[in-house]
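Researcher: Going back to the complex we discussed earlier. I've cleaned up the inputs and rechecked each line, so this should be the final set. Can you rerun the prediction on the complete assembly and write out the structure?
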Amino acid sequence: MNDLSKIKNIIVKNPLKLDCGKEISNFPLAYETYGKLNEKKDNAILVFHALSGDQYASGINPVTNKEGWWNCAIGPGKSLDTDKFFVICANVIGGCMGSYGPSTIDPNTNKSIGTNFPVITINDMVNAQYNLLDFFKIEKLFAVTGGSMGGMQVLQFISNFPNKVQVAVPIACTASHSAQNIALNELGRQAIMADTNWKNGLYGENENNPDKGLAIARMAAHITYLSKVGLQEKFGRKLQEKDKLKFSFDADFQIESYLRHQGSVFVDRFDANSYLYITRAMDYFDLTKQFDGNLSKAFEKSKTKFFVISFTSDWLYPTSENRDIVIALNAIGADVGFVEIESDKGHDSFLLDVPDFLNTLKNYMDSTYSHLNEKRI
Amino acid sequence: MKKEYKIISELIEEKSRTLDVGCGNGDLMKYLFENKTKHIRGLEISKKSVQNCLSKGLPVIEGNAENDLKQFPNHSFDYVILSQTLQAFLNPEKVITELLRIGKKAIVTIPNFGHWKVRLELLIKGTMPVTENLPNEWYNTPNLHMCTIKDFFNFCEKRNIKVFKSFALNKEKISIINRSNLKFKNLISELGIFLIEN
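Model: Rerun complete. Updated structure for the full complex:
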């Protein structure tokens, strides 16, 4: 499993009351930082990761030795320029990269907590991460941002802490998880639970993890992150290292082989129970309902500037759902910008090298920071 | 057309909430941000232009004025600006109604189709006018509903829209338009600027 000794964390001492009613305290929250916090402490950006992400947003993840999930956006001179900004990213609670989650070892039993872990929500995740502001003694963040589930955390964070952020950039997300998205998450969960190694989530005692189920969940989800056009252009009907069909159920097509690969590498770095818990948190996310059907109320106490971004080929969190956030903000006269970026890379666009997206984000961050925090001539 | 920005800026009170509809690359927004009000917002249909504006830190929303103005509440802005865009809409009447719903006041500027050069082109050449301010051919122009200063004046009168102030711009020269000089101004002006209210 993961070499957890390389992971930085804080131990959250304050009790955190979860939405499910339970209370947790003295739990670890793993994080990583990039760049330097300046003296005025006004250059911090809190980045929230998506379903399968972790705190290693940039550089090389020391646990997996792979590139961080947002390496294209975070680093010196990049969109979130670490020569200028101090970027913080934490592993969400429920995750499996050192934060309190179902794979955490219970000291009383010496076994992983498994499904005895409480069901958590996006609200619980951001409340846990808020402790990082105290830890770094940051009075106000310059920005919060993230894509997909990271974007949901952005919305919840502003709602919970309206005066703690200057700029919020939710990307490719929604204020209310759709039936289609719940359905797709349920498909993944059922794949995991159908794996005989899952054993009601208490597989930590066994040699074998529910890898097959988790791999299928990942394969199914991965399709939803891409677009039909993108898949067709990249793979088409190309065959995998062969000239003709083999009349078998081996991976004849490149797309099959690609998906199998995605599934198999995922199980090496991700915990099946974490997948259940985090997808559940996404499904439960309905910020509109939290405010009795009026999303505007979630933001009315805040003076935060918003920049909402969607992508043309994203059918998982389509432009219409991102636009609903913009409409709610306009209804209260909030300071909001919005653009739909042209891309055929589907929902995954926010993680990939999409120059229009990365350049606009960079310029927005740089110019907004100088408008707000640097002395103007 | 920096002169146009200057006139618009002078029509706007300090620190007022202002929306620029069809803000393009945000030049007017930037001018107003630096000179008049920090509460400036934009709506623009072109993705490239929106990205351009956001890159400068200007809060602009990608959208189409004919569909997306409805999301703004009544009188949510002190001023709504429509600079040289009215002629490009499918339904300019509806857009004007929306401007006056969401803004307490609206500032509309129009390239004047009644300018003598435009009239002369059609009269002498017998072809659709192509001038400095209207550089497109009939087959590729984005302008669907060209109008003259006089047309807009008459439109406001018919719809009971109050015209508070109206200016004519000709070669950087500004003058006031009123009922008595309307005929003349309609002949010699390149641009009309109107401050209107319901």
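Model: Worth noting: Chain B has a mean pLDDT of 95.
Researcher: Good, that matches what I expected from the previous run.
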